[in-house]
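re: ur question from yesterday

yeah so i grabbed the chain u mentioned. its 95 aa long if i counted rite. heres the sequnce exactly as i have it in my notes:
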Amino acid sequence: MSIVLGATLQPGNIIAWVIIGLVAGWLAGVVMPGKGYGIIGDLILGLVGALIGGFVVGLISPDATFGFWGSLVVAFIASCALVAILHAVMGRRTV
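ran it thru and got these structure tokens back, copy pasting raw so excuse formatting
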């Protein structure tokens, strides 16, 4: 299965990005320091991170095609960056 990053969204790609985003959000919640945002919050951050990461990589290299693992890496890095930005803007959670 190949996932295409970029502006063209097809139904199969959307489903794959949702799954990848959920996995990336969970991984970011485990890896990033702090209490996290709960399971639902981490999963939502993963989805948003996957979308942002896919959009940015699509802008940088519009003809690039990544497989499952490459897409997971992009989504994970973007999710971690999003969590770091939220920690910087909102402060770390103490509870």
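noticed a couple things. The chain has one domain: 2-90. also The longest helix spans residues 38-60.
anyway ttyl
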